[in-house]
Amino acid sequence: MKLAEVIVDVPTMQTDKPYTYLIPNDLKNQIAVGSRVAVPFGNGKRKVQGIIANIVNKSEKDMNFEIKEIDKVMDLNAVLNNELLELSAWLAKSTYSFRINCISTMLPSAMHAKYKRVVNLLDNNITDKDIINLFKNTKSIDFSEIDSNKKLLNKLMKLQKENKVSLEYLVNDKANSKKELFIKSNITSAEAEQYLKKVRKNSTNQQKLLHLILENDALEIKQSDLINRYQISNSTIATATNKKWILKKQVEVYRNPYKSKVSRNYPLKLNHDQSLAVNKIAESINDHNKDVFLLEGVTGSGKTEVYLQTIQKALVNGKTALMLVPEISLTPQIVNRVKGRFGELVAVLHSGLSKGERYDEWRRINEGKAQVVVGARSAIFAPLKNIGVIIMDEEHDPSYKQDDNPRYQTREVAKWRGNYNNCPVVLGSATPSLESRARASKKVYQLLKLPRRINNHKLPNVNVVDMREELAKNGQEDFSEPLLSAIKQRLSKNEQVVLMLNRRGFSSFVMCRDCGFVLKCPNCDISLTLHMDTYSMKCHYCGHEEPIPKVCVNCKSRKIRYYGTGTQKAQKELLKLIPEAKIIRMDVDTTRKKGAHEKLLNRFGNNEANILLGTQMIAKGLDFPNVTLVGVLNADTSLDLPDFRSSERTFQLLTQVSGRAGRAEKEGQVYIQTFNPDNYAIQLAKQQNYEKFYAREMHIRHEMNYPPYYFTIKITANGGQEQRVASKIFEISKYLKAKLNNTAIFLGPSPSSIAKIKNQYYYQIIIKYKNEPKLNECLQFILNYYQKDAQKGLYINIDSEPLSFM
Ligand SMILES: Nc1ncnc2c1ncn2[C@@H]1O[C@H](COP(=O)(O)OP(=O)(O)OP(=O)(O)O)[C@@H](O)[C@H]1O
Ligand SMILES: [Zn+2]
Ligand SMILES: [Zn+2]
Fold first, then answer.
1. pTM over 0.90
2. Distance from the CA of 543 to the center of ligand 3, in angstroms?
3. 377 alpha carbon to ligand 3 midpoint, in Å?
4. Which of 26, 31, 29 shows the shortest CA–CA distance to 4?
5. Mutational pocket test of ligand 1: of 338, 623, 624, the residue with most ligand atoms within 8 Å of the beta carbon
6. Residues by chain with Cβ below 5 Å of ion ligand 3
7. Which of 47, 586, 649, 701 sits in a 20 to 30 Å window from 747, CA-based?
8. Which listed ligand is nearest to 517 at the C-alpha?
9. Is 524 marked as a binding-site residue?
10. What is the pLDDT of residues 741-765, one digit of tens each?
11. What is the predicted pLDDT for the residue at 174?
12. Is 102 among the annotated ligand-binding positions?
């Protein structure tokens, strides 16, 4: 007897294990490991979705309990292959989350959203009576009306294999796969020539169409192209259809998320360091080695070209390739370079796409139509088969860690898949994470270096501006004298400037000068930010919005002042100081609309503006040859955070953004404004000396018992009642202290650094440890034990290797 182990879509601790179901005989051929099914669950009539994790054979006498049957199959194909199923199990264990949540994370949301399924008829010459009956008046039918008819289902499965029907998902009642109207010629060229002689001389439109048919054998063209490109009117098309010169036809097309014309590009001749790197990686690809490479290359050293030619090597070997970039919407330039090189072979996956676009791209990968995937964090779960190389650009980027369940680090998943596929993983960065660089020192990773910029262009010259002096001298807080005159000079030469200010909005907070009162969010433990475009105070955590106060809420004083400059205010001030400046502002507020980011960058690339002013989203990946000056308005925003990684982040950010200057012929220049000019992270960013920073920071981490010398884990409790949250976390801390070695170091329990978000209180413990074989078991116990509190609104979350201690 065949039994299926099903992971059900009920994310709780008790249900986080496969349930066994009987596979009814008539579904035997349709069910495979990785298929989605509907199964009865609990004792009521409830049906839930599930994924088949395993199929086992059991003899009847081994079964001593009553077992329920699978109700129906949701797809005609498995949606998760063996690799991804195995990965989901590993992911659940290593991130302390439910397996079903891991599976959901892996699948495009169109597959877990509300949907309707339809079967489309693709072939009109089917002879089977049942099928003819089924599609009597229509070309597509609702799958749920027939999915319990097992006989019909069997026939449809067969027809699908022969490409005679297709199953599709309709999300929110909108067709999930997109169709376009095509025009097909219904006559031969010779016939067209005959008709040409017959049409009236003044029907120029019909003549145009006939010429088109005459010149193009078996013409097939989008109706919209016919109208727009060839200026053939709707009425001509109607006439031609009546005369049976042409046929209309609906063709399924994949939505193309990158409509802007991508210009084709070709492999460049590699320099010495680049070819050394490509050869090393290619060797690994050929030999099926699971090496991890760390490609440490200064900004503008041509890392992207190394990635592209490595991908090429994988393709030549008949393999696929996966390339990850940080939050892709921020780096359309890179996507265009990959698309420009590999064209149709490329699928793009990231959160900026619509559900439908994402689903289409996912299907193209799953069906083997795309061999190269480029995408942000979750693209690491792309259903690529036979992977030849996995690349992570900017491997140090914080966006590679998911900050919600499952809290995975993409780098670890990449290594898991590299291991499974017997292929190398390439981690690239100008400023690698300390963890990765340390592993390279220990020869766990292979270090490849690109120490020079392309064509030996110089790294930009970086100046640190002491804002304490500037403030005393000129009373200027935002734009120092040296930066301002450098901007003016560059603009007069028609060169471009990039300015970074890591704070959006107008002012970061308002404070009463008489009593010191700061306006805070009523739901969160954080001050409200002033926004001038909406004339309101906003909370950046929960979205709360209120009017700008005219008098102090606390003492009724009118002396309310704005403190801290955000991008909006900087833009306004800069325009006052340099009226001829043409500024593009780029932050969360100006890039909210789909495609806005790309549009702004294109405008900057076309020299429609001479200053790009933005938050850290402008720091990485941009390659504009005309940018010769970079200014950092306030280098201290990331330095002031109370976190052990704040120096590392600051160094990375400053080095990355500096690297935008002088990438081509013209030399670059950088000004970093700071109130901490002597800080080592700022001084070493001035030298753009990663290796020195690495050595210095490792020393500090060693002294302070921080990663990578220690492993870390963060346990957070949250809930609506502060008292209860606090007492839970103390309980947990006590339990763990008793269980773990006394070499484990506990930080806390304490309130999290933002102690309240959306009316939820947060308390945490951080544990630093070297070797704790019992830890995993203890944490599983905690999750189990406190499961009962989840119903009462008290949650425990575990973050392995958290990005910050805050
Ligand atoms: N071998 C080569 N010959 C000529 N030009 C090259 C070569 N390799 C790369 N380039 C060009 O050099 C410029 C910088 O390369 P690229 O953007 O790949 O650098 P990068 O190392 O990724 O930089 P960053 O880390 O700053 O983003 C690009 O315009 C690229 O086209
Ligand atoms: Zn006051
Ligand atoms: Zn809030």
1. no
2. 6
3. 27
4. 31
5. 623
6. 521, 523-524, 539, 541-542, 544
7. 649
8. 2
9. yes
10. 888 999 888 888 778 888 889 999 9
11. 36
12. no
Listed in sequence order, the residues at least 6 apart from 791 whose beta carbon sits closer than 8 Å to its beta carbon are none
**Nearest CA residue ID for atom 30, ligand 1:** 302
Would you say the C-alpha torsion 325, 329, 330, 336 has a positive or negative sign?
A: positive
How crowded is the C-beta side of 795, counted as CA atoms within 13 Å? 13
d(CA 608, CA 274): 34
Instruction: Find out whether 429 and 280 touch, Cβ atoms under 8 Å.
Output: no
Name every protein residue with a CB atom under 6 angstroms from any ligand 1 atom: 268-271, 274, 297, 299-305, 430, 454, 621, 623, 659, 663
CA 87 – CA 288 distance, rounded (Å): 20
pLDDT of 171:
41
pLDDT of 785 > 90? The answer is no
pLDDT of the residue at 512:
81
DSSP state of 489: H
Of 108, 115, 251, give the one whose Cα is nearest residue 170: 115
Q: Which atom of ligand 1 is nearest to the CA of 301?
A: 21
Task: Determine if residue 778 is labeled as part of a ligand binding site.
Answer: no
User: Ligand 1 mean position to 662 CA, how many Å?
Assistant: 12
| DSSP per position, 349-414 | E-TTS-HHHHHHHHHHHHTT---EEEESGGGGG----SEEEEEETTTT-GGGB-SSSS--BHHHHH
Residues at Cβ < 5 Å from ligand 2 ion: 512, 514-515, 517, 552, 554-555, 557
Between these two residues, 47 and 143, which has the higher pLDDT value?
A: 143
Contact 45, 18 (CB under 8 A): no
Residue 423 in marked binding region: no
The CA-based angle 697-702-704, given to 5 degrees, is 95
Which helix (DSSP H) or strand (DSSP E) does residue 794 occupy?
strand 794-800
Ligand nearest the Cα of residue 754 is: 3
Q: Give the number of whichever ligand sits closest to the CA of residue 559.
A: 2
Query: How many helices (DSSP H) and strands (DSSP E) are in the chain?
Result: 25, 34
pLDDT of residue 667: 87
Which residue type does 420 have?
A: Y
Q: Give me Rg for the CA atoms of the chain.
A: 30
CB 65 within 8 A of CB 71: no
Nearest ligand for residue 297 CA: 1
Q: Which atom of ligand 1 is nearest to the CA of 269?
A: 1
CA of 514 to the centre of ligand 2 (A): 5
Note the pLDDT tens digit of each residue in 372-425: 999 999 999 999 999 999 999 999 999 999 988 899 999 999 999 999 999 999
Q: If you search the block for the tokens 């200053």, which residue do you land on?
A: 611
Confidence (pLDDT) at 113 = 47
ipTM of the complex: 0.95
